[in-house]
Amino acid sequence: QVQLVESGGGLVQAGGSPRLSCAASGPLFRVHAMGWYRQVPGKQRELVAAFNPGGTTNYADSAKGRFTISRDNAKNTLYLQMNSLKAEDTGVYYCKVFTYWGKGTLVTVSS
């Protein structure tokens, strides 16, 4: 079973640049799709950025040009570098690897 632990969230000023991390256990990290999703109250969880199984990346329109997804296979860690944060980026950010989800980390952007 894969366990995922996110970190890096918190209260951030608008325009800030936090980096989220997702530490994964288990051997699935290198071979499956993985990504970051965001959820706000009353709305469905939505894709922010992801690696496809072939290694290409996919970004939500709202994340393009501001967020960068990356991975360190040696550390079994997935990252999301977030730049130029806006109030609408506020939400709980979840890491997903294959079919496994982390518990999420809250990012609150103050304007």
Describe the overall structure.
The protein has 111 residues and is mainly beta. The chain has no helices and eleven strands. Strands 2, 4, 5, 6, 9, 10 and 11 form a seven-stranded mixed sheet that branches. Strands 1-3-8-7 form a four-stranded antiparallel sheet, with no helix packed on it. A hairpin with a 5-residue loop joins strand 5 and strand 6 (57-59). The chain is globular and about 40 Å long. The chain starts with a strand and ends with a strand. The mean pLDDT is 93.
Q: List the secondary-structure elements in sequence, H or E.
A: EEEEEEEEEEE
Task: Indicate the mean pLDDT.
Answer: 93
Number of helices: 0
Spans of at least 5 consecutive residues with low confidence = none
Q: What's the number of extended β-strand segments?
A: 11
Q: Helix share of residues?
A: under 10%
Main beta sheet:
7 strands, mixed
Q: Could you say which structural class the secondary elements and strand pairing correspond to?
A: mainly beta
Measured by DSSP, the beta-strand proportion falls in: over 45%
Radius of gyration (CA) equals 13 Å
Label the overall shape: globular
Separation of the first and last Cα atoms: 40 Å
Q: How is this fold's topology laid out?
A:
Layout: E1 4-7, E2 10-13, E3 19-24, E4 34-39, E5 46-51, E6 57-59, E7 67-72, E8 77-82, E9 91-97, E10 100-101, E11 105-110
Parallel strand pairs: 2-11
Antiparallel strand pairs: 1-3, 3-8, 4-5, 4-9, 5-6, 7-8, 9-10, 9-11
Question: What are its keywords?
Answer:
111 residues; mainly beta; seven-stranded mixed beta sheet; four-stranded antiparallel beta sheet; 50% strand; globular
